[in-house]
Write a structure and sequence with these properties.
The chain contains 8 helices and 8 strands. The protein has 235 residues and is of the alpha/beta class. It has an 8-stranded mixed beta sheet with strand order 3-2-1-4-5-6-7-8, with helices on both faces. Helix 8 links the parallel strand 6 and strand 7. It binds NADP nicotinamide-adenine-dinucleotide phosphate (NAP). The site of NADP nicotinamide-adenine-dinucleotide phosphate has 31 residues, from helix 1 and helix 4. Pfam families: adh_short (PF00106).
Length: 235
Amino acid sequence: MTTTLITGANKGLGFETARRLVEAGHTVYIGSRDAERGRRAAEQVGARAVLLDVTDDASVTAAAKTIEADGGLDVLVNNAGVENRTPDGGVVGAAEVTADAMRAVFETNVFGLVRVTHAFLPLLRRSAAPVVVNVSSGLASLARVTAEGTPAYGYPGVAYPASKAAVNMVTVQFAKAFPDMRINAVEPGYTATDLNHQAGVQTVEQGAEIIVRMAQVGQDGPTGGYFDAEGSLPW
Ligand SMILES: NC(=O)c1ccc[n+]([C@@H]2O[C@H](COP(=O)([O-])OP(=O)(O)OC[C@H]3O[C@@H](n4cnc5c(N)ncnc54)[C@H](OP(=O)(O)O)[C@@H]3O)[C@@H](O)[C@H]2O)c1
């Protein structure tokens, strides 16, 4: 039996990933920073709910204790993420971005991901087939963001792509340090969720595809890579 934790899984891509992994036979914990939203989401798909705010040490430690007491963890999907937008939904570009805005995004997308991974490492190391999926973004790719004429080139935001580029580096360094684990970064593609005020062009079913696939990667599968549904991406 495979036990899987997905952070920020009360809605969006994380929720769809939870639904699909329950269907695939995993015991799934829906991590949610709000107890009631997590409980309702878990009930809908036959998952378990665990209170987990990735920015809060005590919350992450308590979640790790709960899951350890229930028997441990095989798969960690670091999905919780935020993007800083103006109140009317606009992207904050280089002319407006502040250190505080950067810090707020890094707090969840980067430090939160490291906090959760660090707390669950002892559990993952006890698994026979440990897997970590870090939900990154196509905007993390320096190659893409500098390819003139592409949508990634045209995206003016600073904090979000910088945070996801950091997620990619964290992925590579953890993958090298733990060769017995499969640790990969994935790009779901531009998906209609609350993160982008439902402006994405894909459905959550399409977006979750690569997350679900990498959560089920075998021990002979890739590690330290960066993938979307079509294959490997340039860093
Ligand atoms: N949608 C896209 O086009 C797209 C593209 C590439 C990558 N991604 C990535 O995909 C992941 C999922 O995003 P999404 O599009 O599904 O957005 P979403 O619907 O806004 O979901 C984000 C989830 O993260 C949770 N979250 C935020 N801060 C948290 C915290 N401090 N602790 C725990 N959970 C927290 C949210 O919880 P609340 O409900 O409590 O806010 C929510 O459950 C993110 O990492 C995002 O960067 C999305």
